[in-house]
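This part of the workshop introduces the protein records we will be handling. Getting from the letters to the tokens is the skill we practise here. An example says more than a description, so a record of this kind follows:
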Amino acid sequence: MNIDVEIYLNKIINFFENNPNDLSDLIGEINKNRFYEEIKTTTYINFNEKKEVELTRNQLIEIVLKLTKNSKKNPFLITKNGIICLN
């Protein structure tokens, strides 16, 4: 456990809990707890590789794509910016 990682995780979770519309715009129907677990895993990977603990935009997108791909649902993700095909 690293204090910087835990502080970052608390901030990002608090942000999404206080802004549920932003969370749903980002993850759609994905389970938010699975999303938070993936954020935690990726954050610790960053920390262990001596990178910034904060996730990049690409890392967040990769998490959403990974979770959506595993959900065996519609291959389209509907966001506020439009529809994204996950194929």
